[in-house]
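Model: Ready when you are.
Researcher: Fold this.
Model:
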Amino acid sequence: MGDGAQGRAAAARGRGLGVGRRRRGGGDEPALASRLTIVTAVDADRELLGVFGDRAERLGVAARLVYGRWLDVAGGVDPADVVLCGHVLYNVADLRPFVGALTR
């Protein structure tokens, strides 16, 4: 890749999706703030979503918080360029539909 293409790739910004908040600190997506235009966080724990939202706001990242289990809410979540799943896959009995919904 030439220098021009690398520079354009480094400057590119996209949408992030985080499924399953993995810690009280709010997950990794806000740490990618400079690379994202918006991040959608999905979790069945309202407290963790709130922590995430607070952290995203402090970092100046637009955030959408979606309460629920991924497969139950996936149809209402916009596509993303980057997907992170923290501490959730080990709880998924059937990975195929779960991961399939992440790729739509």
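Researcher: Now this one.
Model:
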Amino acid sequence: MGRATEGSRIPQRGHAAHPHLEAFPRPVNLGNMHVHASPGSREKTSKVLRISLFVTLAYIVLLVVAGIRAHSLALLSEAGHNLSDFLALLLSLVASICSRVRPAPRKLTATIAPESWPP
């Protein structure tokens, strides 16, 4: 079994010639895995989102122009789909910017006394 036959070019190997257990690594415990943002990562995220917004918007404009010139409803619908992607990226950018705002030094909660409610 371990030798090449006359008509074959590929040597035939026995089942024991290749290891099975070494091909599969041991399972990794991901129970305690978490990530902390490194300094400057928020600015990098904001920059990547702004570049993505620009590229997506340019692609939307290109699709609209091409769709109108070619009278293609498929291109116009693709532009509409990419518009929803653009809005999702914009929402992510707004959330990224809002996450930089430091909280107020005091609590800004309101309490209503039971005797004053309803007005």
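Researcher: Key takeaway?
Model: The first helix runs from residue 41 to 70.
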